[in-house]
Each structure stands twice: as C-alpha cells, then as structure tokens.
Design a protein that fits this description.
The chain is α+β, with helices and mostly antiparallel strands and 385 residues long. The protein has helices at 19-24, 90-102, 140-152, 158-165, 171-182, 187-200, 207-218, 224-227, 279-285; strands at 2-6, 35-38, 47-48, 71-78, 85-86, 122-126, 131-137, 231-236, 241-244, 250-262, 268-269, 305-309, 316-322, 328-331, 336-348, 353-357, 361-364, 369-382.
C-alpha cells in the first residue's frame, strides 16, 4: 500500500533559501528552508495527501499504522553552521527522561535535556559538492599542532600558546578536560577565542583557520569556535555518507543532504548556539575517544542500489537509481518512506503501485518488497534488519 505524503520545510535561520526547492522542483518560500521532515515525529509530521487512504488521518502521527515510526527522514539544507551537539544512547536517554520527569520538569521546560526516552543516532547522505561537517574528536596531537600554527601566526597569543601546551597526555582525558574548560565560562576562554580568531585571519590558506573564520562569522565570540578545532572536519562528496552515533559531537557546517535519524528530539548542545548548554550532562554523554571521520561504506544488494546500514535497528537507507537497465527490487523489513529526487519512478509492491515524480514522496505500508522502475533516483528509509 502506497500513501502519498508531503510537508512544508522548517524555516530555521541557518537554512538555505534555494537548495531544497532546487532539489525537489518546488517554489521557494522566500525565506530559509532548513529541513523537510518526512515521518511521524510530532514536531512536524508529514501530511497525508489522501486522508481517505489512511482512515481519515491528516498526518502520519495521527494514523495508527505509522504513528510509531522509529525513524525520521529529512532533506537538510544548511547555508551556515548548526550548533555543536551530541545525542544520548538508549540507556542514557531513558534514564535522563525518567530523572527529569521525577524532578517535575514540564515537557516544554527550558531546563529539560531529554524530551523523550529515545536515542538519536543519525546519518547524512551528501547531495551537494561539498557537504561539510564537524564530526567527533580528533587526535589531540593534531589539534595541538593546529593551535601552535595559529600561535605562530600572530604576535602575542600567550593564552593560545598556553592552551596548545595543555593538549598533551592520554587523549580521552585531555579532550574531556579541554571541553569542560572551554564550556565552563572561565573569563580566560574569551581571551583564547579572541586570540584564535585574530590568528586565523593571518592564515588564509590553513584549513583550521578557515574553520575558525567560518564559525566566527556565524557565532562571534562563541567558545565553540575553539572547541571545533578539537574535532574532525569532514568534507563529503555527493553520494558519501557520514554516520553520527550516540556520543559523537558534531555540527553540520554547510551543504545539502538526505538525513535519516531515530525519531527523537534529544539534543545536548556544546557551543555555536545561543541556547542553553548543560555542560555536566553533555560531558556525561560525549564519547571522547578520537576517531577518523570516514564515510560509511554501502552494501550493493542489486544493480543501481546502495544500502547504508548502521549499528542501530531504527533505520537503514536505500539509494536507488533506475534507468534503462530495468527494474530493481529491495526488501522492506517494515514500513518505509520513499522520496524521489530526480526523474520519475514507479514503485510497485505485491499489493499496490504508485508513480512518483521529482519532489514527491509516499509512505509504504504492508509491503515486504519494493520494485523501482522508470528513470530517476529514489531514497527509501526503513527499519534496519
């Protein structure tokens, strides 16, 4: 069974005014269009375009067949940096939600860290060239070298040089200590941020300096500018995917992509924001193990199909390109959402068929396989099993 769905992009200030409309062939709103949500999350549930097919339900959150979807599919378009953030594990989310409920915090309280008892791992499939993000802590030795380059680029900079010297020792402990200090409102942090920004302006061809200049333009004086230099800067090319598991500190910097995540609203911020930062809770969630931000490798179950799986059961993403080579079939382990981003694609199951043009989407219910034919590109989200 196929039921057509749609939605209106969310107008977060960091959104692009043209990218989502350009991808989907829709009319730009004239304002920022940051995220198009396709799922049942109550924050912006997808509209059901033919309610008669969904028992009269107007959106996926109101339809009993789709109200408990474990994932949320998005089109994301960042014209500027998002906040530094991390998401909890299932155990952390459940414990935090119960703790805040027991404390009597209202569901909409600004003091809440946990809006629900669920984790929020996510992946991003790059559509733009490039798509850039900060992702996970890098080896502090790399960061130390970056701060030393910056310190050498400008006279003075005693605070900057001193901070560089602190980045020596056991990596996890070094990164934890640096994060707590940078977000702890020590007045010297403001001096460090100012020195880092001044030095970055003197290094026009340095990648770390470029990160500083970009973030200073969006969030002048924010300690996240310095924290960002403890992280990997990932540059994705079209078709590459980045996976952001629980505990991974990250921020999308700019670009257009398809995002798929667990259907949760639990975000712990760590800078580049004017919103509340709960430093102790953030630190309790963060994974301080240095990583390399490498793209997620796909499976290739059929011609024209890439399947991106992670270590969580909530979601998997199919990227399907169909052409004159004929139809291709993928297995569906549960309710799916399909979005066509190019051409026109016919989707068929055992019980129903629908044709979707560029920019159109549908929820797929009670089908164990999905066959795509025609000429175009379709993204399909479904549970991971």
């Amino acid at each position: 069974m196929f039921v057509r769905i749609g939605n209106t992009p969310r107008d977060y200030a960091w959104g692009s005014t043209t990218a989502i409309a350009g991808l989907l062939g829709t009319e730009p709103s004239g304002g920022p269009e940051a995220e198009l949500w396709l799922g049942a999350h109550p924050g912006s549930p997808a509209r059901v375009l033919d309610p008669a097919l969904a028992g009269g339900a107007q959106d996926l959150a109101a339809w009993e067949r789709t109200s408990d979807l474990p994932y949320l599919l998005k089109v994301l378009a960042a014209a500027g940096p998002l906040s530094l953030q991390a998401h909890p594990s299932p155990e952390q989310a459940r414990a935090g939600f119960e703790r805040e409920n027991a404390a009597g915090l209202a569901p909409d309280s600004p003091e809440r860290n946990y809006k629900d008892p669920f984790h929020k791992p996510e992946l991003i499939f790059a559509l733009s060239d490039p798509f850039e993000a900060l992702c996970g802590f890098r080896d502090p030795e790399e960061s130390r070298q970056a701060f030393e380059r910056l310190a050498a680029a400008t006279p003075g900079g005693a605070v900057l040089a001193g901070f560089a010297r602190t980045l020596v020792g056991e990596p996890g402990a070094v990164l934890r200590r640096a994060t707590e200090w940078l977000l702890g409102e020590d007045p010297e942090v403001d001096l460090l941020v100012a020195e880092v920004v001044r030095a970055a302006r003197a290094l026009p061809d340095d990648r770390d300096a470029d990160t500083v200049r970009m973030l200073d333009e969006a969030f002048p004086g924010d300690p996240g500018i310095v924290l960002a230099l403890l992280l990997n800067r990932a540059t994705l090319r079209p078709g590459q995917v980045l996976y952001l598991p629980a505990g991974n500190i990250h921020a999308y910097l700019r670009g257009l992509g398809i995002e798929l995540m667990a259907a949760s609203d639990n975000v712990l911020r760590g800078g580049l924001t004017r919103k509340r930062i709960d430093v102790p809770e953030l630190v309790s969630v963060l994974d301080f193990t240095p990583i390399e931000a490498t793209p997620l490798a796909p499976e290739h179950p059929a011609a024209g199909v890439e399947t991106f799986r992670t270590d969580v059961p909530d979601f998997a993403l199919e990227h399907i390109v169909v052409d004159d080579g004929g139809p291709t079939t993928v297995r569906l382990p549960g309710t799916a959402i399909a979005l066509v981003t190019d051409g026109e694609v016919e989707l068929s199951g055992a019980n129903d068929t629908v044709t979707l043009a560029r920019g159109e989407s549908a929820v797929v219910v009670d089908e164990t396989e999905l066959t795509a034919s025609g000429h175009g590109t379709v993204f399909v989200a479904h549970p991971n099993s």
